[in-house]
Amino acid sequence: MESVRREWKYFDVTVVVVLALLAVYACLAIHAATAGNHSANVPSHVMSKQIAYEVLGFVALFAGAWMDYRWLRKAHWWLWGISCFLLVAVFAFPATMGAHSWISFHSFSFQPSELAKVAIVVWLAKYMSDVEEAEIPDYRLRKQWIFLPIVLVPFALTFKEPALGQALVMIAIFLTMYSVFARRGPYAVLMFFVFAVIALGVMATTVFTKQTLAFVDLLMKHRILKGYQAYRILTWVDPNFSQDKYGYNIHMAQTAIGSGQLFGEGYGRGVLTSGGWVPNQWTDYIFSAIGEEFGFVGSALLVLLFLVLCHRLIRIAQTTSDPFGMYIAVGIVGMFAFQVFENIGADMYMSPSTGITLPFISYGGTSLLVNYFAVGVVLSVGLRRRRARLQTQFETSKGRLA
């Protein structure tokens, strides 16, 4: 009991304060986006459900922190296998809004892709830490083929749902963790690939706009992309594309953000938000409600909270001596960072809209609970970093004596 008390002295209170502030942001934004919206798509009792999810989320947060994260190292295959099984099982349930993304029982629904993202983080952390802890670490590419099925199987199943945004998060998780793991040659290959993708994205939306539109149209004709996915990309490439139909959502979201200007219209006074003019504003486009009602200042404060959260989690990764815990923290940070950039960027035409929710802000149950638990696991790494450091020192001294 005494050792447990000593460990909890290292609990990062700043993370909890940031999450509490994000929870306030979420409740205010969701209430603003749904209070005057009489659409049938708005969930019933949306605010009472969101508050309940927030309470359960903090329970999941402290449960993840209390749990010894090293247990996940033993269960990495189980987590990955169960998540893949659920990703297959989801196709046996009716589609919701055109996607087989949820397993539903009466009023309960679960999104397996959220669990799959965490499962990928745990599996990659296990493998990468095993390599680093080996007596002679082997970073050769031919030893890393196992990464392909581990990432691509859940990616393909999620893409098939279709849930392009969630599938892209899985790739972002892998690239983030691999950028820390890779050495020399592999790292150079990875960086070349990342910069090539960024360069292609910039050129596609500036220099080769017509060619990009034709290529996306080709992908849609061959059914590689769903129609709505292709139209989202087309809207990103050409902001004037079909503003009255396919580009309506993102056009209205950007208009709402712009109308907020510096200090916002005021809470409950946003014309587009209170009038329900932005579709799905309580989920995918929640940032537009914040931008309209709280303006640039309120939006910048929200981004600052995300930066503080990521900084504290990165700090935990830097200060632990356990490679497994370090990679867990890196993967979770990569997951959050990509989702925040993609969600906010989509509202401002910086990236294509892919249906990714804004972590801790958008309405939802599964995503909120999984995100809170994921942060709790990183806090668990921070709580036990002193024990991990002492264990590392002991094993090092034992090896020298041998």
UniProtKB/TrEMBL annotation:
Its main location: membrane. It comes from the Bacteria. GO terms for cellular component: cell division site; plasma membrane. The chain crosses the membrane at residues 12-31, 51-67, 79-103, 163-181, 188-208, 294-312, 324-341, 361-383. Keywords: Cell shape, Membrane, Transmembrane, Transmembrane helix. InterPro entries: FtsW/RodA (IPR001182). This is Rod shape determining protein RodA. One of its GO terms (biological process) is regulation of cell shape. One of its GO terms (molecular function) is lipid-linked peptidoglycan transporter activity. It is a multi-pass membrane protein. It is found in: Membrane. The keyword Membrane applies. PROSITE patterns: PROKAR_LIPOPROTEIN. Pfam families: FTSW_RODA_SPOVE.
